[in-house]
Protein: YtpI-like protein
Organism: Brevibacillus agri
Amino acid sequence: MWSAFYLTGVLASLVASVYFSIHARRRGIHPLESRMTLGKMNIALGILVSLFGLNQFTFDTLDTIRIVVAIVMLLVGVMNLYLGTRNFLHYRSAWRAELKKGI
């Protein structure tokens, strides 16, 4: 069960991060929309790195190095997830204010 969840999560977050990265760097896109999309990319990358960290705990032999690497990957993933969410919400509100101003 874990392998199906893990594989689906890794593939979905990998595809989402590549899509949002390409989408954010298009020409002719508003800078606030681009930053909002980069926030989505950071969320997807945070999920990807967190899943890699969680996967380290599923191995039979847990030695010190594996645990340290897993904890570091979990910390990096959670921080990326938090900061991406914060940036997305900040730029989304700024983008909405900009759209209301233009109307």
About this structure: Residues 2 and 58 are 9 Å apart (CA to CA). The chain has a mean pLDDT of 92.
